[in-house]
Design a protein that fits this description.
The protein is an alpha+beta fold and 115 residues long. It has one domain: Nuclear Transport Factor 2, Chain: A (Roll), CATH 3.10.450.50. Helices cover 23% and strands 50% of the residues. The protein is built from three helices and six strands. It has a six-stranded mixed sheet with strand order 2-1-6-5-4-3. Strand 3 and strand 4 form a beta hairpin. The longest helix is centred in the first third of the chain and has 11 residues. The chain is globular, with a radius of gyration of 14 Å. It starts with a helix and ends in an 11-residue tail after the last strand.
């Protein structure tokens, strides 16, 4: 099991300390869909902690090649079902950089893609 899988297991359990331990202290995580950038592991984990109640966190697929890991995860919360895709770069078995993109299930068309 790699750091990405351990991260998402910890997030599912709401074990914030274990989640943070999977990232370097100064890991950079980007959420381009909102324009957010987290430059510290604690800020990234806090964003998840403050987001609200999750009733389901289901990791659907993990693909790994060397230091790179791709992930598809489905999260249910009070607002609906969300699908997330993440691209993670590992360094010495912890997450160093990542980009996560989220969308809510049922959105007809992503903004900016065609007319």
């Amino acid at each position: 099991m790699n750091a990405v899988e351990r991260l998402w297991r910890a997030l599912r359990r709401e074990d914030w300390e274990a989640a943070e331990a999977q990232l370097y202290e100064n890991a950079v995580i980007r959420w381009p869909h909102t324009g957010e950038r987290f430059d510290r592991a604690i800020d990234y984990v806090t964003a998840y902690r403050l987001h609200g109640t999750r009733t389901r966190v289901d990791v659907r697929r993990v693909l790994s090649e060397g230091h790179y890991v791709g992930l598809w995860v489905v999260v249910d919360d009070g607002e609906g079902t969300w699908h997330g895709a993440g691209l993670y770069e590992l360094q010495e078995a912890r997450i160093h950089h990542a980009t996560e993109i989220w969308t809510r299930e049922g959105v007809e068309r992503p903004i900016g893609l065609g007319t």
